[in-house]
Amino acid sequence: MENVTSTTDNQTLGEWTDFSIEYKVVSIFFVILICGIGIVGNVMVILVVLTTKHMRTPTNCYLVSLAVADLMVLTAAGLPNISESLYGGWVYGYFGCRGITYFQYLGINASSCSITAFTIERYIAICHPIKAQFLCTLSRAKKIIVVVWAFTSLYCVMWFYLSDTKELVYNNITLVSCEYKVSRYRYLPIYFTDFALFYVLPLMLATVLYGLIARILFLNPLPADPKESSSKKWKKESSQRNRTISTNNSSCSSTARSRRQVTKMLAVVVVLFALLWMPYRTLVVVNSFLEKAYLDFWFVLFCRICVYLNSAVNPIIYNAMSQKFRTSFKKLCRCGPQQMEKPAAYSVVLTYSVIKDMSNGESPDHFTTEIDELGTSTPADRILPSTMRMSFEDPSLSGRVALSTP
């Protein structure tokens, strides 16, 4: 995070005045509260996706990447703010200054890239469903995440060489601060490049893509899935024509509702990213054109808290807007052995059906994504076409078959 307190160079320092008690209490309270909730929430997101099989979808992989980036922001930017409020200076030394500054920028930039990645993934999945069969897969999402972190890790290496400790000698005390080596005016091109790449461009792209997604989801009917179309054609020729048509319509409606819900949740994440980062970004941009930077302690604290809140609020959004995340969070918090989510006895049959249906060259990863996106509460006979349903002679088994993805 840019150190906005390091904008005064070569000025005579007078008497040093410590922060007021009110400022210390308010800053430490909110930072501990927000960072504590954010760290616990993001760790839960990571654990839920990694330990729950049906949660391992391309979109959730990007959310794990975002959670890791948010954890970096909360620990590297949020927690050091507590010591700054208590002591008024930098207490982590020379290597701490360089390392913490690096991880601050790495978390910030990786979170922006992760948001851009799942925005593009949603656009392809909704607006180009045929291409999504091959592009929006779990393996491809993992590769993209590796590229995102490799790029941001290399890009942020420059902060190792731009940050350094500096002694501030006052009349009554000498403090150490973590500042930038280059002067304020030489730093501006670096900052504005970072500002454009990781804030302006992602938001412009998200605005355009979510506008196109909204046109498909809310103004036009959902594009037909090739599997659903072939299934519907086959069902029309069967003896149970009326029943299968109503089932297909119900499945389409469930798919549309699920996709709208996921898209709304991700759109809220993007909007909050834009709003909560805006005060701090605006402050630094305005100070770039002022003779004397505006550095009111309370307003700077407000800007920082907004940044920490952005990294802490995402798990709350998932819990509020996603039934799957809410259920998985509850299971993660329970103690003792948990009941299996899906009967293992039916896994082999369903796996065979999935492989059989993928014989036309479609990606099994994408099929898993589409099934999981519907949620675990959707009955199997409303998701799978009739050629993929299991039939049993025992009527007691009907209506109780749960999906089991490979």
TrEMBL record:
Gene3D superfamilies: Rhodopsin 7-helix transmembrane proteins. Residues 225-240 have a biased composition (Basic and acidic residues). The chain crosses the membrane at residues 25-50, 62-82, 102-124, 144-162, 196-218, 265-285, 297-321. Residues 41-318 form the G-protein coupled receptors family 1 profile domain. GO terms for biological process: phospholipase C-activating G protein-coupled receptor signaling pathway. It holds the Pfam family 7tm_1. It is a multi-pass membrane protein. PANTHER family: THYROTROPIN-RELEASING HORMONE RECEPTOR. This is Thyrotropin-releasing hormone receptor. It comes from Esox lucius.
